[in-house]
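Protocol step 4 of 6.
Sequence for Alpha-glucuronidase (Anaerocolumna jejuensis DSM 15929) entered exactly as in the expression construct, tag removed. Do not edit the line below.
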Amino acid sequence: MKYSMAWLSYRRLPFYEGKEYFRKIYVQEEDEITGTAVYELCRGARELLGIKTVVIKLPEPFGQDERGKTEEGIYLLSDSKGPVGGGYRIAEENGRIRITAAEPEGLLYGSFDLIRLVQRGVSLRGIDRLKHPDNPLRMLNHWDNMDGSIERGYSGNSFFFRNDRVQVEERTEDYARLTASVGINGVVINNVNVTEKATRLITGEYADSLKRMVKIFSKYGIRLYLSLNFAAPMELGGLETADPEAEEVKAWWQEQMKETFRNIPSLGGFLVKADSEGRPGPFTYGRTQAQGANMLAEAVRPYGGIIIWRCFVYNCTQDWRDRKTDRARSAYDYFMPLDGKFEENVILQIKNGPMDFQVREPVSSLFGSLKNTNQMLEVQIAQEYTGQQRHVCYLIPQFKEILGFHTYCRKEEDTVADIVSGRSFSHKNCGMAAVANTGSDANWTGHDLAAANWFGFGRLAFDTSLSAEEIAREWCECTFGTDKAVVYAICKILLMSWPAYEKYTSPLGIGWMLTPNNHYGPNVDGYEYDRWGTYHRADHLGIGVERGKTGTGFTQTYLEPNASLYEEIETCPEELLLFFHYMPYTYRLKSGKTLIQHIYDSHFEGVEDVEEMVSLWEGLKGKIPEEVFERVMLRMDHQLDNSAEWRDQINSYFYRKSFIMDEKGRKIY
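Step 5 output, structure tokens:
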């Protein structure tokens, strides 16, 4: 099947003043990753500029004296005093472009950065760019199953697995190219819900295929990770228990990890979902999450492996009548007492909010509260609750808000970005992870515009100082070219999309008003009386969940002044008001509108925003490839219909609950 190369689909530039740089590439080292950097520069020169590049090996040693006598061209130079950790410097002087780094990964990232600049028509003359990755680990978590399906996948089937086999093909390398080009350095290829054949990925059964995948990933600076089954000692080893404190269980894991790392020596480690949504874990045996994680950490430590332990642990069989038990508290209640009790090669992977990737929810209170534990931020670009890649929903503005959230854990360097980068508490094992949104569709992400979230997550994880606007423009220019009308329209669509989705779905932080199981489309009471324990508590007087001191007390899990900010209705941010408080429909917001009028207005406004997005896209006909235009047009037409359905169901629901008319007299059913 023919598929696109997304933002690496190089189009020939009719004119570019910097062509001459690419006629010669001088390379100092001959390692595999540097070789990839050379290949990518040559490919970019050929496809973008129509130039055949000559590659020249520099003599050893190549010191400062020699550097002053060099000819025009691009130089890939290893410098032990240069940027480390994947950092790089690009500097141009007198016709020479030098990309320097302490490690080969930096040379690769610098090469991709140079190509991006060319794609965007940026002049290279006099350029001097110094970049250091903000996060040590920048990962994608794929939820791919070995039968080829993808849990919460909206872009076709898996290209990693098919019919219980590991697939390694041309697309594997193209995936690695795209992923590395935006600075991602770790990939978990299988679903966190590990069942059946996937449990056997840690055995020798799939070792040959995984080694081939590792070989491809490695030359792009990407480490392979696997999700594992906590109950593997029982399912694979025939033991009667998976108790992390049982000696026979410890011995089994140590022996199994010896085999696994012998088969796949450069494996990065494992992602673990335990004691959540039916997955086995240490709670089964009366043990803590730290005991479970540390047992595995001990088994992988001799091989440099890490254990990434998800904090998505909660009671999913809650009685809807119980008004004190609060799913939002679960991660904090389970993990906060364990701060400092996890091994150094354990990382807690914490979802951005206390619930589950909703369009709006507060930042998890674990961030800032945990001070002695390695942490990673987990976000979701798969759009499970934000339109499932049938709706445009550019999520980078949301991620920017999360990263910029002040936890007040310190006087300075207290944001989520500071914590997960390691700056706040000097942690080395930390970073960002995203639930991936790729699949076997020809455009990789189902909706062509959803690729902006894949690209954007990588760029943001590498450089958290970038704005959502800058990333949108970068992606657009690399994907569609630099035509000003095209860039303006697509960037406007992207930047409108997250606020629009929030407007026509769930108001003021309430979340969850969608169809159970598939999580698509409106169903206001779908989860209201369900065992999963997510509520909006709407009645004829008002709506919202009371999470203050008189309710579940969740507000008090935050550090001050956030705890008081959320506790008091007057200071609680209005976009989160119904997440933290039950409010009457007649309550007046800062805008002067009543709560119920805000619900009506925002849902009408959201559909109007989609109408504008559709109009902007229609104006691009003939300016972008017809196949792409038509494919996106179909999805945007669907988004318009679906947003109107959301508007009508939500507004009708609250009108029938409250019997309060829309002040503007619009049609409500």
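Step 6, annotate. Residues 137-470 form a domain with the TIM Barrel fold (CATH 3.20.20.80).
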